[in-house]
Amino acid sequence: MSGLADLLKALAADGSQLVGPTVREGAIVHAEISGIEDLPAGWTEVQEAGTYRLRRREDQALFGYSVGPQSWKQVFFVPRLRLWQARRDGAGVTFETEQSPPRRLALIGVRSCDLHAIAVQDRTFLQGAFVDPDYAARRAAAFVLAVNCGQAGGTCFCVSMATGPRVTQWFDLALTELLDEPHRFLVEVGSERGATLLARVASAPAAAADREAADRIVAHTAQSMGRTLDTGGIKELLYRNLEHPRWDDVAARCLACANCTMVCPTCFCSTVEDVTDLTGEHAERWRRWDSCFTLEHSYIHGGSVRATTKSRYRQWLTHKLATWIDQFGTSGCVGCGRCITWCPVGIDLTEEVGAIRASHAAPPPAAEDTTHGDA
Ligand code: SF4
Ligand code: SF4
After folding, report:
1. How far apart are the CA of 281 and the centre of ligand 2, in A?
2. Which ligand has the minimum distance to the alpha carbon of residue 160?
3. Deepest in the core among 63, 240, 295, 367, taking most CB within 10 A?
4. Residue 67 CA to chain centroid, in angstroms?
5. Ligand 1 center to residue 326 CA distance, Å?
6. HSE (CB half, 13 Å, CA atoms) of 140?
7. Is 33 in a helix, a strand, or coil?
8. What is the share, in percent, of the chain residues with pLDDT greater than 90?
9. What is the pTM of this model?
10. Pocket test for ligand 2, best of 52, 155, 250, 259 (most atoms within 8 A of CB)
11. What is the DSSP letter of 16?
12. Are 260 and 317 in contact (CB under 8 A)?
């Protein structure tokens, strides 16, 4: 325990802002933290479709929960960003581009599914034809202290998506929390930076028994996923069923509130807004998160392309699980379960895909009996 406290102190001493889990307003959220004392000691959560609540644990686990409402998306792809501002300057106008703040971050407690989500967002913002400078500046030099999940959430399905629960890449250090006495952490080194940092705090070589215990914890998490999703041929399944009656069924329940896209760690849509003051002397352009569930999102001159909730839900789900694969070579879903938990009416994408798949698996209706027997 004191080793983790020292690790966080060393990161802070190097000038990194610690961003980690903490309890706030009835949820475990990612926020700026000062040290180990801000972590959600002794808390866990209960999640189901449309339900999230905190619950006390019987121990003092620091990472004894699965995932909260926020992913790390908000840290790199910030919800609101001023792109530029302009001032009237005599007869002309002066433009000032926003300079990205040089802010070195240390992310504390990152789960495997969320590391995969960050990799998905990197493809969009860093590895395409255009690099997003603000995302790149925030992402650069971020230190990742990852955590292997010690329990699965009620809506998680990372095993189905091959994104967890064990952290395998994209980390500097990875912890597994061992809760028997003495409360301690098994640490895995994932980078040179991680090794250098670890060398500055007191640690001991891991005992074979501790390594086995850590393996058992992760294996147990993998076996207790809240959900499963059969991904076999999922792209083709969805492409074949763009007119399936299930889309009408889900549209009758969906509020088009956009919650699922806000909490999703891979969704990347945004819009821009121009604002001006009343004098007309000063104007600003802001980028803010947008969602394919809003009517305006697909607006082109003359109207919205996706005017119905059915078309918007279908767009979202088929993009996540099918067209994303064509676009980026990977699924747009990492199985974190947030869209299920935070949907106010409990719509569950694993259930929706399952219903479409089941309708294909169902035996064809029996042929009408046209034979006539004796009365
Ligand atoms: S679609 Fe849902 S389960 Fe998949 S990554 Fe997004 S929020 Fe998580
Ligand atoms: S699926 Fe749920 S969270 Fe997403 S827009 Fe519809 S009601 Fe909102």
Report:
1. 40
2. 1
3. 63
4. 9
5. 18
6. 12
7. coil
8. 89
9. 0.93
10. 259
11. P
12. no
